[in-house]
Specification:
The complex is a heterotrimer of chains A (about 160), B (about 220) and C (about 650). By secondary structure, chain A is α+β, with helices and mostly antiparallel strands. Chain A contains 7 helices and 5 strands; from the N terminus they run ααααβααββββα. Chain A is globular and about 50 Å long. In chain A, about 45% of the residues are buried. The model of chain A has no long low-confidence stretch (mean pLDDT about 95). Chain B has 2 domains: about 80 residues, Ubiquitin-like (UB roll) (Roll); about 80 residues, 2-Layer Sandwich (Alpha-Beta Plaits). In chain B, a hairpin with a 6-residue loop joins β3 and β4.
Chain lengths: ~160, ~220, ~650
């Protein structure tokens, strides 16, 4: 995305907000919702709008887990590491995702298909271990199920290619 | 006339303005209490360095002097074992994450950490904790001063003074163990809007910000 | 309040109530079957949306006069997806572990036919001659549902269902009382904050009411960040209006004009349901200007957290509402005196607010009659981990841990032995068998080294390593530490280093003492509640399970066979079946191959300890074992 495009999108979001500092986090959430991440230019645009020093915006963005500085993958994989998931082998599941995608937590695959991250707890403890795949919590995801889920994505991609 | 209160710190009878904290009451009367994050005119104390512990008569646990308002007749002790233990532990934690290279540190003669180490009788080369330092690059892009983020103790003095008298390019970013004073997008200070007033360097207690050429401070 | 205001309330509410009741009755009109599917996040993780679709498809295919509605979570999460079918002539029947195929069968056999498919039944909702009811389950005698009562029984996206079931009645009653009287009622009830600290709610409101400064704010803290806790999520997803009603009453009592619900980002469904609830309440005049015709005006905004555990701490939560990084501030001043934008602000937990309507409806004495002297009312726990009946439970305060775990939760699955229960998340502690007869209340748990926290209860069995669980929690708090104060920023990091070393077999004996020393330091020296309580998991495991620490350090052995670096997977040659290749196929790194005699052997160099082979090995052979220390694996045969 070009700098100009990023600025345009950001300004579009800013239109529906008043210039109150308390709006900073909702604005950043909305911008990220649109762009998938928070590029430098977007943060500068938000800082100017609210009359804040850019470092303030950067401080907030780097403080909260939800905000990302880099573009995400097409599919998001969030491995829950809540207590119940951990005790039921969530860390083993995370290892399996890392191994299969060849990336670490917080990274995106080179083909931009997947990004992998951990999440503190999605509150679905009874289905542990949980992986949230594209916003959908999946229960009882062990290494075998990781392979199955990836296979399903691959099939889907091949199906699209054929079409 | 401002109202004053009288109190006792370390057996010394002192007077201070009503509403003052114990920390400033003590410092104004020549009683040193180790501190890094306290700013005299701040709206509220940051209370983040956790070094200014004192024992106050009538309180079961030591308190931080920067958050305790001096009250009439208060009796405080900066040298109690409990207070000293908390101050030492906190300081040792800071030092375990601070590169100890005093001999070649440009801040050697103005270093407040050395002053605190002396006051608390903490040996810098005998830290009980694991050495956990960051290995971030030193920013020497600014013609006037260098910034070594590995030496930052997260006290906030530079951030505050930069907002007050500088251009406001400094602030805190990142979380937890990685929290430090930095610039927007962690860019080089030389590339930022910094106008080199040098106030941040004069404020820094830990040798993270140092002048390139030694100037009179 | 003017008299005209008070007089307007009754007819205004009456009108809503009549409407809602008609709507509710219409839903259950005679002859029609109603199917409710639990689609809270826990249900969805188990596939409830697919089940919902299957019901809808089958019902329309057969062209039946049957309503299929979504409800929240009943608390029986172990049996998700859960479905209730209410067919005239039958008791309402609850089915567990429903999948799309079973859904189709239920419609064909039961809704269209007259076979209630007993094989899928969990229980009936009310007593009858046909099917045992849920109230006859042994757990029912220990449970007392106040704030979970609606959950799983009404559609959370339909305000009229809430009103028809007694909703907003307490608001109507409160608006006819003087605010001081409302505070007095809550004070006398003995309600204490359910967010963890247990501060008396009425007192908090009173301080806020009496503090100078306008406008005042009322905040609902739904930033439920404790891993292993999901009570607040479940309540918001299943019964959001009960939270709004509590907020409205609190705002009326304190004089607040603006409210915020702070919901954590990881709960998208909760966010969605709050949005719907707010919209509906506004539409019916239950939010906004001159509520129910009174001169009380109050509005609520939804604020989504951005993923920072520390924002559950009230001053950090306020900082994030103000557009700052969520770093805590020194208290006092407390938010009730100087909170959001420097104005008096009450911050109450979801559960606390949900109790309010019951107190107003039934009176302070009624509430004070439940529970123990210092802790009135009920306690809600999220049961998870190694327990048969995972899910939500609500029991009177004073119930023992043993009753909750073994009677309500039905104990430990797979015949394993109970080892510990972790209460209160990262701020709580691990309590051993000897603490099981403790009555649950704010003070007894604190004495034992744990704390009520927000109500997460994770049960651990003999396979769970106590050093690892301590390491897990410290890793969590270290990662979530805001980094503002020295003790928490650096102390938790030091603790994590030591614990990691111990779980990897690199620990020294003096590390254990150092850990104790650090934990005590961080507890005494940290600025906010997160840091002050972060050492609890370490302190309690050191207190109750020191022998496990010592086994790791002295022998390089993990007694629970959990720590990956201290175990090895091994296939017992005499148990391995030659003709079976289950483990070979399942190994994720091709580390298993058969030897000359077709006995499978694990290449220890390649093994990543993913546990697949142990799961795959058929029960009748049971040939895969974990050994600790890894040196125990015989080296002669390679």
């Amino acid at each position: 995305m070009t700098e100009e495009k990023i600025k345009q999108h950001t300004r579009q979001v800013l239109k529906s907000f008043s210039k109150k500092k308390g709006n900073l986090i909702p604005i950043l959430q909305r911008v990220q919702g649109r762009l998938g991440y928070l590029p430098r230019e977007a943060m500068l645009e938000v800082a100017e709008f609210l009359g804040l020093p850019p470092i303030h915006v950067y401080g907030v963005v780097t403080f909260y887990n939800q905000f990302r500085l880099n573009p995400p993958g097409k599919h998001s994989v969030r491995v829950c590491l809540g207590t119940a998931c951990h005790m039921k082998g969530g860390y083993i599941t995370l290892d399996a995702w890392k191994r299969r995608l060849s990336i670490g937590a917080g990274e995106t695959t080179t083909d931009r298909e997947f990004d992998l991250d951990t999440v503190a707890c999605v509150g679905c403890c009874v289905m542990a271990p949980v992986t949230v795949l594209d916003e959908k919590p999946m229960g009882k995801v062990d290494p075998t199920k990781v392979d199955g889920l990836l296979l399903a994505f691959e099939r889907e991609r091949e199906g699209k290619k054929k079409q | 006339m401002m109202k004053t209160v009288s109190l006792t710190i370390d057996d010394k009878q002192i007077e201070t303005q009503a509403g003052n904290t114990l920390l400033w009451a003590a410092l104004d009367n020549g009683i040193y209490i180790p501190n890094l994050c306290s700013l005299r005119h701040a709206a509220a104390p940051a209370a983040s360095c956790r070094l200014c512990w004192v024992e106050v008569e009538g309180k079961a646990q030591p308190v931080t002097a920067c958050t305790e308002i001096a009250a009439e007749g208060m009796v405080a002790n900066t040298r109690g074992t409990q207070a000293l233990r908390l101050a030492r532990n906190g300081f040792e934690l800071l030092m375990a994450s601070h590169p100890i290279e005093c001999a070649r540190c440009a801040a050697l003669h103005v270093c407040e950490l050395l002053k605190i180490a002396g006051h608390l009788n903490v040996k810098l080369n005998k830290n009980p904790y694991r050495k956990l330092v960051h290995h971030l690059p030193i920013d020497s892009s600014n013609p006037l001063f260098n910034y070594d983020p590995n030496k930052c103790v997260v006290c906030g003095r530079c951030v505050s003074i930069c907002r007050e008298r500088g251009t406001g390019v400094l602030g805190f970013a990142h979380r937890g163990f990685d929290r430090r004073a930095t610039t927007f997008y962690d860019e080089l200070i030389g590339d930022s809007a910094c106008e080199q007033c040098g106030e941040c360097v004069r404020a820094c207690p830990s040798g993270a910000l140092t002048f390139k050429v030694s100037v009179n401070v | 309040m003017t008299t005209t205001g008070v007089q307007a309330i009754i007819p205004a509410f009456q009108e809503l109530k009549v409407c809602a009741e008609a709507h509710w009755k219409g839903l259950w009109k005679s002859g029609r079957t109603v199917i409710t599917v639990g689609t809270a996040a826990c249900g969805q993780a188990a596939g409830a949306l697919e089940v919902l679709q299957a019901f809808r498809d089958e019902v329309s295919k057969l062209n039946l006069d049957c309503r299929v509605i979504e409800v929240g979570c009943m608390g029986h999460c172990y049996a998700e997806p859960i479905v209730i079918i209410s067919k005239p002539g039958y008791p309402a029947i609850c089915y567990g572990h429903v999948n799309p195929v079973i859904a189709g069968t239920l419609v064909k056999e039961f809704v269209a036919g007259d076979n209630p498919c007993l094989e899928f039944v969990l229980g009936a909702l009310e007593k009858n001659d046909l099917i045992p009811s849920l109230s006859e389950f042994p757990r029912a005698q220990y449970e007392k549902k106040l704030i979970l009562k609606n959950c799983g029984h009404i559609d959370p996206t339909d305000i009229e269902q809430y009103i028809a079931n007694g909703g907003y009645l307490a608001l109507e009653k409160a608006l006819r009382m003087r605010p001081e009287k409302v505070i007095d009622e809550v004070k006398r009830s003995g309600l204490r904050g359910r967010g963890g600290a247990g501060f008396p709610t009425g007192q908090k409101w009173e301080i806020c009411r009496n503090s100078a400064g306008k406008p005042k704010y009322a905040i609902c803290n739904a930033d439920e960040g404790d891993p292993g806790a999901f009570m607040d999520r479940s309540i918001i997803e299943s019964d959001p209006h009960s939270v709004l009603e509590g907020m409205l009453i609190s705002a009326y009592a304190t004089g607040a004009r603006q409210g915020y619900i702070y919901v954590r980002a990881e709960y998208p469904l909760a966010v969605e349901r709050v949005q719907i609830a707010l919209r509906q309440a506004k539409k019916l005049g239950l939010l906004g200007r001159e509520i129910l015709g009174s001169n009380f005006s109050f509005d609520i905004k939804l604020f989504q957290g951005s993923g920072a555990f520390v924002c559950g701490e009230e001053t950090a939560l306020i900082a994030s509402l103000e557009g700052e990084a969520g770093t805590p501030h020194v208290r006092p001043p407390y938010p009730a005196v100087s909170g959001l934008f420097g104005k008096p602000t009450t911050i109450n937990n979801v559960k606390t607010l949900t109790y309010v309507r019951h107190i107003i409806n039934n009176g302070a004495e009624w509430f004070a009659g439940i529970g123990t002297k210092g802790s009135r009312g009920t306690a809600v726990f999220a049961l998870a981990g190694k327990i048969v009946n995972t899910g939500l439970v609500e029991v009177p305060m004073g119930t023992t841990l043993r009753q909750v775990i073994f009677e309500v939760g039905s104990g430990i699955p797979n015949g394993k032995k109970f080892k510990a229960v972790q209460i209160g998340g990262p701020s709580g502690g691990c309590l051993p068998e000897s603490a099981l007869d403790l009555p649950i209340d704010f003070d007894s748990l604190k004495k034992a080294g744990a704390m009520m926290g927000s109500g997460g209860m994770v049960v651990l069995d003999e396979d769970d390593c106590m050093v690892e669980i301590a390491r897990y929690f410290v890793e969590f708090t270290q990662r979530e530490s805001c980094g503002k104060c020295t003790y928490c920023r650096l102390g938790t990091k030091q603790m994590l280093e030591i614990l990691t070393d111990i779980t990897k077999g690199r620990g020294k004996l003096e590390d254990i003492d150092m850990l104790q020393h650090l934990a005590e330091g961080v507890k005494a020296g940290s600025l906010c509640g997160l840091g002050k309580t972060a050492p609890n998991p370490v302190l309690t495991t050191l207190r109750y399970f020191r022998n496990e620490y010592e086994a790791h350090v002295r022998e390089g052995r993990c007694p629970s066979l959990m720590c990956p670096d201290l175990i090895a997977y091994y296939i017992l040659p005499h148990k391995c079946e030659r003709s079976c290749d289950a483990c070979v196929g399942t190994c994720s790194v091709e580390a298993i191959s058969p030897d000359k005699k077709r006995i499978k052997v694990i290449d220890q160099e390649k093994c990543v300890k993913c546990n697949n082979c142990l799961v795959a090995c058929p029960l009748q052979y049971n040939a895969v074992v974990k050994l600790s220390p890894p040196g125990k694996v015989p080296t002669s045969k390679k």
